[in-house]
Structures are given as C-alpha cells and as structure tokens.
Amino acid sequence: MKHAVRTLAAAALLWLLTPLAAQAHIASNGFLVVQVRGQTLNGSMELAVRDVELAIGVDSNGDGKVTWAELRAAEPRLQLYVAQHLSFAAPNVACALSFQSLQVNQRVDGNYAWLPFMAHCPVAVQSLRIGYSLLDDIDPSHRGLLTLSDGATAQTAVLGGNASAAQFMLDRPSRARAFEEYLQAGIWHIWSGIDHLLFLLSLLLPAVLIRTAGHWEPVPRVRPAFLNILKVVTAFTLAHSITLSLAAFGLVRLPSRLTESVIAASIIVAALNNVFPLVTESRARIAFAFGLLHGFGFASVLADMGLPSGARVLSLLAFNLGIESGQLAVVLAVMPIIYLVRCAAVYRRSIMPWSSAAIAALALFWLVQRAFYPGS
C-alpha cells in the first residue's frame, strides 16, 4: 500500500512538473495605455508579435519568422481585430475608435506591435467602461495591463481572461480596487512567469533530502524538511522584496536584458546544483543571492503597469503579497507530494535529478535567447 501511494505521488509530481518544464515562453501580456482629455481618449495597444501571429496569422510565407513587411501588410487586419476585441464607453455610449500607423516596440521578451489609437466619446469622460477580450479564445492566459490617466490621477488594472468589462471612475479612483488589482497582478505574474517558479522548484526539490557520504538520502522526519523549505522560501521572499521595492521607487535600476539573462543563469545554477551537488546545506543563501536579481524581474512588471499616485506603497505591498501568495500555492502543491516520495529510489535517482536537468536545459535556452537574441 505504501509503495502504491509513493508511486501515485511520483506520478502526480511529474504531472505537475511537465507543463512547467515544457513552457518555454514568457507570459502573454498586452499593454494598454489610455490618456483621457475631455471627450477624447489617446492611447496605444501593444501586442507581442507572436500573439499577433496567433490572432490573425501574419507569417505569409510560413518560415516561422514575422518580418516588418509581413506585419505592415497585415495592419488592416490587426486594426480590425483590435477594434473587435477592445471597446470604450462613456458612460454607457460607445466611443468611436480610430487607429494611427503601426509601429514596433522591442521588449525583453521580443518585438511588440505598437498600435496608437484615438477614441472620441459623446461626453466628457468621467466614467469609462473598458472591454478587453483580445486572445480570449486563443490563449486564456493572456492578460492586458492597463494604465489609465487623466492628467491628475493614474489607475492600473489587469484586463482579460474572459472577465466582463471593467468600469473606472476617473474622479474617484478606488484604493481598494488598486490593492485588488495589484494583488491579482502579483499572483498572475508568479504563475505566468515560469522562470521564477522553476528557480523556486529547483530549490524545493532537494528540500526533502540530505546529502550523506556522497548520496542523497531522505530526511527522517517532516520537521527538517519543513525547516529547509521555510529557510529557502523566506530567503527568496526577503531578497526579492528588497530589490522589488528599490526598483519600484527608482532607487536602483538594472537593464532588463541583463536582469532577465541573469535570472535564467540563476535557474541553471540552482538546478545543476541538484545534479552535481556543491552546495547542500546553504540553499537559503543561494535563494537570497539570486532572489535579489529576481526582484528586478518582478519590478519590470510594475514598470509596465506603473504605481498609481496616492497609492504607491499600498499597490507595491499588494503586488508583493500577490507574489508571495502565488509562491505559497506552489509550495503547498509540491511539498506534500515530494515528502511522500522522498524515500523512493525513483525520486532520488530519477525524478529529482532528471527534472532538475530538464529545468537547467530550458534555462540555458532562455539564457542564450535573452543574452544574444533579445528580439526573437
């Protein structure tokens, strides 16, 4: 019976890890910026070129690469697609949307189609309803990161995911809403930012083992495993909270290309340490050291969203709490399973080292892509 339980737990662990190790792209996010000026909305919609390809198919020659010529040729279809999936109303009457010339913007995870627009509303905008359904039927994980401003105040929101249209009061921005939005953004970022999760998993996989005479052995009781987990998660949390706060308030900044490349390198180091153990008793130190760099990665999302004036500390706190909630969910899902299978030879000899090797290989791909081909 005990062997059957361990076998099932091992199968469940592999089921959890397989989609994580297979997902080789950064989260799908669109960036929506809206500025309100009386009856007029000025803004832009940014979509990753890879998402544009999924939505309307712009790779006309089928070579797997989208050129500027192909993107320009598809501009009318892109405008139509965005118009069909993005709407504004003030307060309940639709605003007429028109587009300007398509451009391309480069971000750390690739090229983005940048589509400026204007919308004319029937009355001066004090209440605005925004409907966002881009990629809902293609990629349910896609989200739109909104920055909405009227010159005096700025608000942010996470749109999409088959959610109903969101209503915004420009003259009465809600602190409670800001907290909720940033909390959700933090949770969503940790769940969709697979690189951060794989780093954490690389540190958690050996937490139920101890290194003895050159071999991995199971911890005898739950308490040592719990303390290992607590040390690792606490160190990682403390470190990325420090740099996230510093970067969010503009005190320390690193180039995003450097940050994302080093995050990939940190995953390689943590994962290979499970296969070729050099540091077995101080994984919390690894978590802290590299957690400082992961904090700059988290800060890149806040840079895209912006911290609303009047609620900067509250929003930063909410975003950080969201990240911790997402991490805690991963720990609670993974740790009971690996504790159950820790005594099984298949975990020590196969699951733990091979999962770590797969994570290291994926991170190596990310490192090469981010360091040498940032626009791909």
Low-confidence segments, ≥5 residues, pLDDT <50?
20-25
The number of distinct helices, counting runs of at least 4 residues, comes to 11
- Shape descriptor reads globular
> How many angstroms does the end-to-end distance come to?
50 Å
Rg over C-alpha atoms, rounded to the nearest angstrom = 23 Å
Order of helices and strands: HEEHHHEEEEEEEEHHEEHHHHH
Task: Give the strand content.
Answer: 15-25%
How many domain modules?
A: 2
Structural class: alpha+beta
Residues in helix, % = 40-55%
> What value does the average pLDDT take?
81
Largest sheet geometry: 7 strands, mixed
Number of strands: 12
Care to describe what's here?
- With about 375 residues, the protein is α+β, with helices and mostly antiparallel strands.
- It has two domains: about 200 residues; about 150 residues, no CATH class.
- It has eleven helices and twelve strands.
- Strands 1, 2, 4, 5, 6, 8 and 9 form a seven-stranded mixed sheet that branches. A three-stranded antiparallel sheet has the order 3-7-10. A two-stranded antiparallel sheet has the order 11-12.
- β1 and β2 form a beta hairpin.
- α1 packs parallel to α11 and α5 packs parallel to α10.
- The chain is globular, with a radius of gyration of 23 Å.
- About 0% of the residues have low confidence.
